[in-house]
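Two entries, shown back to back:
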Amino acid sequence: MKRVTHIFIGIVLLLGAMPLCVYAQAELVPDTVRIERARVLEATQTQNAIIPGTDTPSKIQMLTVEVLDGPDKGQVTTFQNDFTQLETGDMFFVRHMITSDGTEYWTVSDAYRFDLLISLTLAFLVLLFVFGGLQGVRGLSSLLGSLVLIFYVLLPGILGGHSPIFVSVGVASLIIILGSYITHGFNRTTSSAVIGMLITVASTGLATYWVIHTGNFSGFATEENVYLNFNTKGNIDMVGLLFGGIMIGLLGVLYDIAIGQAIAVEELFRAGTHMSRAEVYKRAIRIGREHIGALVNTLAIAYVGVALPLLLLLKQTYSSSASLISMLNSELFASEIVRILMGSIGLILAVPITTFVASFILEKHRDALATHQSHSHHH
């Protein structure tokens, strides 16, 4: 009898829990979100308003739009827009969200810019072909190869749970090797630059690894990192991702200065066949110093341009509530400072390293360079 009573109680509890299970399943039904192209049929009632909870003014307009593609193609709807202000006839991307209970929300996702991007790309290609010639085409091929490595090796490797440190260093090395030989051909000068860049990447990588771990960086300086961590369920090493970003960002300026130094050494050996290796190294370093001065300034200003909103936030916060030291010490700002300084350090190291490698390799083939030079003059 006691056993039957237990079974009866269990059945009652199970039946009582079923509505809760059904309710929980209903709550877990994800929202449906569609991003579709649309056109503004009418934009009216533009008015000023204050964003709730803040003192920030905003403009609100009533939009009547037609969806141009996707599952909602042909549908006409009207909604309020407090995002990018649009005019009648404008194309844009609309965000259509359908909640689990069937409620629909329409909002402006983004302005339509694809035609503009295509026009700019065509203008770039025309100028590249006209003024860059064959070398420009080879440079473009190198760029496309680098993008393929980034999108099909670097990103999948990191998202697949592999160490961002090893993946980024490996991809950076491949970009250096393939990009250099595609653009400048297989020759001793290019090989000198490649070896110099690989040594510089290794040296700067070790220094960056030490800096990041000594500074106790978490890798969660921005909202994007936080969202990425949630979306991947914590499978990505965010500190390693910070390291990888610094390494990939270093490649652009590193490539420029390493190739320039290797070519400078080659030309010095050709022009001054009587000069010793030490003298060629000294003169090439002189050229490199001028290059460093220009590129370090370029690198810092480029980072400032990207981080301009961050700098405005720094100035506003510093002047109102926090000390300058506490703001610079925060990971949000400190990580950007580390990017600038490690990129600059790698840039500076590339000059003596590449110059030494090039002077050592090319000095052994001085006669071949001189012969090539004399044949060029003869022709």
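entry 2 starts here
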Amino acid sequence: MSVFAVNHLCRELLRDHAFRAAMKADPAKALEGKNLSQKERDALISGDVATLYRMGVNSFLMGYLCRFEVSGLSLPVYNERIRSAAPPGQ
């Protein structure tokens, strides 16, 4: 598993405008060649932040996914999905 790579990728959305545009246009193509597991790749493409969070990806850095509306994520969608990853009662 390459949680560090996913954290780094999320940070790159903020810094690398070309990468951000590529992720918005075609996430699957933008992720080609990245050192990610298939599960991480699938979760990023589908915007499954709950799975990424359970894998150990930093929720603050994943916030860039919704900030730039990558993989179909908006702030309300991100909030709903990330809350589903939290243990009940928290």
